[in-house]
């Protein structure tokens, strides 16, 4: 199966598309503070130890295809290190209490490094701190950015930057006017909070665009579709949709299509979820702003540096890039299932279909 090539987009191209940030956004203060915090160097000498190493992976959920691909990136990178002898994976199935128990169980198995995706950051903060206090470094993979005492470092995707890129492309495609809805991930998560803040910041520049409803689809195609079906009953006119997650975007598009209203709506870019890429290839609309699954691989790289006692940044950003509808066919795999992700995983590490 063809694996999509690495995604590149020059700064000049982003500027030409209107996806670069405009001047003087006061609401970017928190994002700027996060970027500054991520650049801080962490002394990891206390975690230095000789191999062999055992990596524990606490997944808040493995029902999400993005996490499945990110996990395969973890395994791929781990395979490149002869001193990594085992990768132990747990699945909390969206249950914060179970994730606490999972991490405690991993610690009892004498892991040397913990990589995690949280269900709820605050719920697992104390058990992560216990791991660090016990000499087990922790690295968050993907999601947002955490600077709590229980997180040594992050391989993170800036949800604010992603949200801004998606919002600016949507504004450009709408011509700066119309009524829109927003479909965000799990309420209260960094992803949801930062994406909404980015959208609201961009909307300040477009007074003729009205956000009529903000919803939370939990990165779930079926739930996003059901929510949209209800919104279509409430609102006789919806001109645009802000939805950075491809899983939810395809569900939204299906709801509009089945209601006979697909022709009235402008979809924002989603991400590189294959079902969405195939939809964009067919309809020539929206494009994608990537949410790279290789965040899992970056987390292992950070973790191995920590175990060698090397200083690391508090956070390493995995950048999002824009793919236009005209370019989408290079990344969409029309023969692969919808729950597939454009990535550079070698064939032996691709998830089983």
Key structural traits:
Peripla_BP_I, Rossmann fold, single chain, 17% strand, D-ribose-binding periplasmic protein, four-stranded parallel beta sheet, TAT_signal
Structural summary, described in words:
- The chain is an alpha/beta fold and 353 residues long.
- The chain has two domains: 11-24 and 159-289, Rossmann fold, CATH 3.40.50; 40-157 and 292-320, Response regulator (Rossmann fold, 3-Layer(aba) Sandwich), CATH 3.40.50.2300.
- It contains eleven helices and 14 strands.
- It has helices spanning 11-16, 29-38, 65-79, 96-108, 121-133, 159-174, 190-203, 221-234, 246-258, 274-283, 295-307; strands spanning 41-42, 53-59, 84-91, 113-117, 138-141, 153-156, 178-184, 209-216, 240-242, 266-267, 288-289, 312-313, 315-317, 322-323.
- A six-stranded parallel beta sheet has the order 3-2-4-5-6-13, sandwiched between helices. It has a four-stranded parallel beta sheet with strand order 8-7-9-10, with helices on both faces.
- The radius of gyration is 20 Å and the shape is globular.
- Residues 55-310 form the Periplasmic binding protein domain.
- GO terms for molecular function: carbohydrate binding.
- This is D-ribose-binding periplasmic protein.
- Keywords: Signal.
Give the rounded overall mean pLDDT: 90
Rough outline: globular
CATH fold descriptor of the largest domain: Rossmann fold
Q: Give the percentage of residues in beta strands.
A: 15-25%
CATH architecture assignment name of the largest domain: 3-Layer(aba) Sandwich
CATH class category label of the largest domain: Alpha Beta
Order of strands in the sheet with most strands: 3-2-4-5-6-13
How many DSSP helices?
Answer: 11
H and E order:
HHEEHEHEHEEHEHEHEHEHEHEEE
Q: Sheet with the most strands?
A: 6 strands, parallel
Number of domains as seen in the coordinates: 2
Helix % is 25-40%
**Global Rg:** 20 Å
Distance between the termini: 11 Å
CATH H-level name of the largest domain... which superfamily?
A: Response regulator
What low-confidence regions span 5 or more consecutive residues with pLDDT below 50?
Answer: 1-27
């Amino acid at each position: 199966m063809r694996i999509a090539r690495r995604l590149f987009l020059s700064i000049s191209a982003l500027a030409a598309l209107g996806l670069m940030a405009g001047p003087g956004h006061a609401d970017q203060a928190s994002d700027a503070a996060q970027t500054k915090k991520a650049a801080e160097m962490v002394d990891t000498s206390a975690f230095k130890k000789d191999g062999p190493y055992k990596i524990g992976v606490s997944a808040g959920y493995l029902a999400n295809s993005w996490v499945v691909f990110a996990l395969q990136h973890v395994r791929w990178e781990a395979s490149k290190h002869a001193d990594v002898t085992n990768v132990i994976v747990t699945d909390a199935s969206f249950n914060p209490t179970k994730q606490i128990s999972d991490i405690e169980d991993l610690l009892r198995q004498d892991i040397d490094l913990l990589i995690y995706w949280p269900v709820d950051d605050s719920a697992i903060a104390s058990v992560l701190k216990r791991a660090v206090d016990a000499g087990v470094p922790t690295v968050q993979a993907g999601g947002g950015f955490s600077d709590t005492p229980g997180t040594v470092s992050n391989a993170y995707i800036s949800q604010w930057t992603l949200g801004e890129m998606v919002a600016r492309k949507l504004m450009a495609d709408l011509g700066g006017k119309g009524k829109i809805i927003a479909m965000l991930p799990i309420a209260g998560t960094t992803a949801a909070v930062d994406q909404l803040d980015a959208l609201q910041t961009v909307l300040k520049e477009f007074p003729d665009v009205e956000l009529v409803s903000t919803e939370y689809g939990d990165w779930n195609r079926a739930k996003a579709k059901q929510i949209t079906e209800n919104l279509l009953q409430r609102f006789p006119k919806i001109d645009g949709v802000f939805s950075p997650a491809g899983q939810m975007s395809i569900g939204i598009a299906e709801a509009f299509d089945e209601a006979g209203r697909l022709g009235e709506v402008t979809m924002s870019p989603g991400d590189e979820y294959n079902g969405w890429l195939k939809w964009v290839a067919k309809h020539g609309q929206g494009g994608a702003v990537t949410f790279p699954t290789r965040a899992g691989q970056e987390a292992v790289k950070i973790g191995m540096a920590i175990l060698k006692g090397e200083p690391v940044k508090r956070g390493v950003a995995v950048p999002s890039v824009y793919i236009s509808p005209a370019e989408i066919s290079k990344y969409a795999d029309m023969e692969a299932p919808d729950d597939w992700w454009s990535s550079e995983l070698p064939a032996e590490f691709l998830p089983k279909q």
